[in-house]
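A reminder from the course coordinator: this example appears on the midterm review sheet, so study it carefully.

Given structure:
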């Protein structure tokens, strides 16, 4: 089925609105460096927190969760659910401290915590290391996922999809700084969540609801009981009890993952810096963790289970 002219109109309207956001908020971002990088430290908690959630809602994220569920059931998500403990540590300990620091970026804190030439070298290395190889890899897989989705939905080539998407992002982020980013994040989050919930609803309808989904998966997969298990089953090959213990006791604080490490560096910290005050920074981070771990994944998980039933 091809795209109707109404579909193209909606796509065009979205891009126009996104660019308009950049134009409208360009004045707020042009006042100073503080206005551009941290929105003048004036973001309310609900906007800063929703921006955190939207930033971790890339085009590839639902696809990754689908792969985890298809391979190891609902419990497969403990690969990233274990970072919830790190997130809550950020909420009740680090968020207020980040906001109190008064820095513009998390790497700037390096020269506050340490001193001398060694601190400057560490700050420079960390900035270059995270900005170039790490961000290049992350932007690469996220952009590839978006290009594939646009290719299927809109029927455009990868080059056209990538150039169009990056050009729109470049316009609004350059014009409006973090203000443009968080406002478009807010819009994108509700569009994406509405689509995810709608897809889960229609997917369940196609398999006869939750009971029909259970029956279909039980017929197709002998281990269907483990598919619906919230925790890994004792003795499972993919995650034995010892490995699960490592995940919940060690992994969440010993591993680095963008925005999920203790303290919530990177884009999480950037939104914390931008909050109105310490209270708003705490509430923003709390809302992010609730939405990120408890609310947003379930439509994806339902769609993943439906896909296993419809496309075994």
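Designed residues:
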């Amino acid at each position: 089925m091809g795209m109707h002219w109404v579909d193209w109109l909606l796509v065009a309207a979205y891009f126009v609105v996104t660019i308009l956001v950049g134009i409208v908020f360009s004045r707020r971002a042009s006042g100073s460096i503080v206005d551009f990088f941290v929105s003048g430290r004036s973001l309310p908690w609900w906007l800063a927190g929703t921006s955190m959630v939207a930033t971790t809602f890339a085009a590839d994220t639902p696809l990754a969760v689908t792969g985890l569920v298809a391979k190891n059931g609902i419990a497969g998500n403990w690969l990233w659910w274990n970072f919830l403990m790190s997130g809550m540590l950020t909420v009740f300990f680090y968020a207020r401290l980040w906001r109190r620091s008064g820095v513009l970026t998390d790497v700037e804190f390096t020269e506050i915590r340490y001193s001398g030439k060694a601190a400057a070298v560490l700050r420079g290395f960390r900035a270059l290391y995270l900005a170039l190889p790490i961000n290049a890899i992350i932007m690469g897989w996220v952009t590839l996922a978006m290009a594939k989705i646009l290719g299927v939905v809109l029927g455009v080539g990868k080059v056209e999809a990538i150039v169009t998407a990056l050009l729109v992002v470049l316009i609004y982020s350059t014009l409006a700084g973090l203000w443009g980013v968080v406002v478009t994040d807010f819009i994108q989050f509700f569009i994406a969540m509405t689509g995810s919930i709608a897809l889960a609803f229609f997917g369940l309808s196609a398999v006869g609801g939750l009971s029909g989904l259970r029956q279909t998966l039980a017929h197709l997969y002998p281990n269907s009981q483990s598919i619906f298990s919230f925790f890994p089953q004792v003795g499972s090959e993919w995650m034995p009890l010892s490995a699960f213990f490592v995940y919940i006791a060690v992994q969440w604080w010993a591993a680095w993952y963008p925005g999920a490490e203790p303290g919530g560096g990177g884009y999480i910290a950037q939104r914390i810096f931008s909050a109105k005050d310490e209270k708003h920074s705490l509430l923003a981070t709390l809302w992010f963790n609730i939405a990120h771990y408890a609310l947003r994944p379930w439509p994806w998980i339902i769609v993943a289970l439906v896909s296993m039933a419809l496309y075994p």
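The first helix runs from residue 5 to 24. The domain at 14-310 is CATH 1.20.1730.10 (Sodium/glucose cotransporter).
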